[in-house]
């Protein structure tokens, strides 16, 4: 019996979300770089509609998920894994990202986040590269039962020195590490699936 060729092997779909609404966000740029360096076995799809997700309100939820929330949940549901690039605001996760996680965590039983393999990364002009925000997001993922990859960590500090004016990641060492990080996410996803 012959082995399937690499082209026959289905690609893993990764839903990538940047926790920033800013067009020039380093974290959005980091996800675009991830698309560029990803192995052929990963299909990284950036969900770029956080601005369409309203503030969480149980009264609104009781009437049915708004369209932006449905789109978010569908993107996560259809993916094999989740990749979140978070900025750090006031030592924590930006409100827009936390709001999206709050919506995606509903309903508490059967949420699209439950059991979804995830990886967290972040870019910042500061030296710590979003370490505190990533830690806060991991705490939220404990409650949502979202298994976040522990290692390697991806904490891109001094991001302003590693992207060009067009938002392209130009630092070759960072590009190489990003590819290794994505390979680790692939292995994490396959491990949890098996």
Rg, Å, rounded: 17 Å
Order of strands, widest sheet: 2-1-3-4-5
Fraction in beta strands: 5-15%
The helix content is 25-40%
Under CATH, the homologous superfamily reads Flavodoxin domain
Which stretches are poorly predicted, pLDDT < 50 over at least 5 residues?
A: none
Description:
With 194 residues, the protein is α/β, with parallel strands linked by helices. It has a single domain, classed as Rossmann fold, CATH 3.40.50. The protein has 6 helices and 5 strands. The protein has helices spanning 26-37, 58-62, 67-77, 95-104, 131-144, 172-193; strands spanning 12-18, 42-47, 81-85, 118-123, 154-156. The chain has a 5-stranded parallel beta sheet with strand order 2-1-3-4-5, with helices on both faces. α5 (131-144) links the parallel β4 (118-123) and β5. It is globular, with a radius of gyration of 17 Å. The two termini are 23 Å apart. 40% of the residues are buried.
SSE diagram, text form:
Layout: E1 12-18, H1 26-37, E2 42-47, H2 58-62, H3 67-77, E3 81-85, H4 95-104, E4 118-123, H5 131-144, E5 154-156, H6 172-193
Parallel strand pairs: 1-2, 1-3, 3-4, 4-5
Domain NADPH-dependent FMN reductase-like: 14-160
Protein name: Quinone reductase
InterPro entries: Flavoprotein-like_sf, FMN_Rdtase-like_dom, NAD(P)H-dep_reductase
Structural key phrases:
194 residues; alpha/beta; Rossmann fold; 5-stranded parallel sheet; 6 helices; 5 strands; FMN_Rdtase-like_dom; Flavoprotein-like_sf
């Amino acid at each position: 019996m012959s082995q399937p060729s690499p082209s026959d092997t289905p690609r893993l779909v990764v839903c990538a979300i940047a926790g920033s609404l800013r067009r020039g966000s380093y974290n959005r740029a980091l996800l675009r770089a991830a698309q560029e360096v990803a192995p052929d076995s990963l299909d990284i799809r950036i969900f770029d509609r956080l601005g369409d997700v309203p503030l969480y309100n149980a009264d609104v939820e009781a009437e049915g998920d708004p369209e932006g929330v449905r789109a978010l949940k569908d993107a996560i549901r259809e993916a094999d894994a989740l990749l979140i690039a978070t900025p750090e605001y006031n030592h924590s996760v930006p409100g827009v990202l936390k709001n999206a996680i709050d919506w995606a965590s509903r309903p508490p039983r059967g949420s699209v986040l439950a059991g979804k393999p995830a990886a967290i990364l972040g870019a910042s002009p500061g030296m710590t590269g979003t370490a505190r925000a990533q830690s806060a997001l991991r705490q939220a993922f404990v409650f949502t039962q979202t298994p976040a990859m522990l290692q390697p960590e991806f904490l891109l500090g001094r991001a302003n020195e590693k992207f060009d004016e067009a938002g392209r990641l130009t630092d070759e060492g960072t590009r190489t590490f990003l590819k290794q990080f994505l390979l680790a996410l692939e292995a994490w996803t396959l491990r949890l699936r098996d």
